[in-house]
Design goal:
alpha/beta; Aspartate Aminotransferase, domain 1; Aspartate Aminotransferase, domain 2; 2 domains; binds D-malate
């Protein structure tokens, strides 16, 4: 009989968000009158910018003509989109990133998992705890870990705790690791990194010949221009970092699907025989074999985010969600809860009241306020005792959710 990949059997019950959906479904079935407000998964709710819609409509019309029809596109993305990204997101901030160092894709979740294809199995991996669960689960699936222990932590991974005591700033490891996942603005804690903090990681990576996998999916939510949006704002980062970016959260593309990964050509890894290898070439080879690119129509939509109209609409969307975050922060603080994040990120990270755990608080808010959030323990053992609310919802729902929580 066919054998399955035994690494999948090491995974804990279910991916966090489907598990929440399962519990919410069971609750709704038993309480059909309850009107739930979902502030759990970080999925956007506001309509797509009209600049993107217009560009996509025009692209559909083009596709209906012989001269404007597009079949397979380049696996790396159309050059005009890669150029717009390089110019607006990197060169405008002083980062020397070229268009051909940008690989357009259908999502950062996919890219941050798929990147493991080109990295050796023997690498020692570090993640923060709590952390976006995809980084951990994709390493488990790839066979880079042992079994999960009692706390849910997998043998073989290095966990770097982040909590209120260390201001959600992971301590740079004293031991050697080969790959470090960093996410700023952070999912789930909403923390943000300064240039000095990122420079310390780049310094570590250079000394240890390590690779930083930098997830900047939420960079558009940074409110202070002195804070870095890209790891390439730090000297030396293009020799030790890969960056993941997305149109999902800034331009509402969670359902439309478009993202990109930056792999500088100067980035090197080592083969088993010690030979230096270009990481860019391996990723290019991987994408050319396993990926057929993002649709022409969607890439035209993504390109439109860089037009003057698109830029202004994206700015308004981000401002709208950040006002939601502020409403959540203020109301929960008034309700006597300790809140973190939500200033440069669309996530508010909440310390649950004494005597409760994360799932207990999740169940309480679900049952008594009909509000769905995300239990902090779902992001890792050190997330126990915390709870995350997302600012992605309508103003009306956010205000209603806050009234319900206040009145508990
Ligand atoms: C989350 O809620 O953490 C996000 O939905 C993550 C994601 O974008 O996959």
């Amino acid at each position: 009989m066919v054998q399955v990949n035994g690494n999948y059997l090491k995974l804990k019950a279910g991916y966090l968000f489907p598990e929440i959906a399962r519990r919410v479904k069971a609750f709704s079935a038993a309480h059909s009158q309850s009107e739930l407000i979902r502030l759990g998964i970080g999925d956007v709710t506001e309509p797509l910018p009209s600049a993107c819609r217009e560009a996509m409509k025009a692209a559909i019309d083009e596709m209906g003509t012989v001269s404007g029809f597009h079949g397979y596109g380049p696996e790396q993305g159309y050059f005009w989109l890669r150029e717009a990204i390089a110019r607006n997101d990197f060169q405008a901030r002083g980062c020397a990133i070229d268009p051909d160092e940008i690989f357009v894709s259908d999502g950062s979740k996919c890219d941050s998992s798929n990147i493991l294809d080109i990295l050796g199995l023997g690498n020692r991996i570090a993640v923060t705890d709590p952390v976006y669960p995809v980084y951990v689960d994709s390493n488990v699936m790839a066979g880079r870990t042992g079994e999960a222990g009692g706390s849910g932590r997998y043998a073989g991974l290095s966990y770097l705790p982040i909590n209120a005591e260390n201001c959600f700033e992971a301590k740079i490891p004293e031991h050697h690791v080969d790959v470090i996942y960093l996410c700023f603005p952070n999912n789930p804690t909403g923390a943000v990194a300064t240039k000095d903090q990122l420079a310390a990681w780049v310094d570590y990576a250079q000394k240890h010949e390590a690779l930083i996998l930098f997830d900047a999916a939420y960079e558009a939510f940074i409110q202070d221009d002195a804070l870095p949006h890209s790891i390439y704002e730090i000297d030396g980062a293009s020799n030790c970092a890969i960056e993941f970016r997305s149109f999902s959260k800034n331009a509402g593309f969670t359902g439309t699907r478009c993202a990109f990964t930056v792999i500088p050509k100067s980035l090197k890894g080592k083969a088993e025989n010690g030979e230096m290898i270009d990481i860019w070439s391996l990723w290019n080879r991987r994408q050319s074999t396993k990926f057929n690119g993002v649709s022409y129509i969607v890439q035209r939509g993504a390109e439109a985010t860089y037009s003057p109209k698109g830029q202004s609409e994206v700015k308004n969307l981000v401002a709208f969600y950040m006002e939601n975050a502020e409403i959540i922060r203020q109301n929960l603080a008034k309700a006597g809860l300790k809140v973190y994040g939500g200033k440069h990120a669309p996530y508010v990270w909440i310390k649950v009241p004494d005597g409760m755990d994360s799932w207990g608080f999740f169940d309480l808010l679900l049952a008594k306020a009909n509000v769905v959030g995300t239990p902090g323990s779902g992001f890792g053992a050190a997330g126990e005792g915390y709870y995350r609310l997302s600012a992605f919802n309508s103003r009306e729902n956010v205000e209603k959710a806050m009234q319900r929580i206040q009145s508990l």
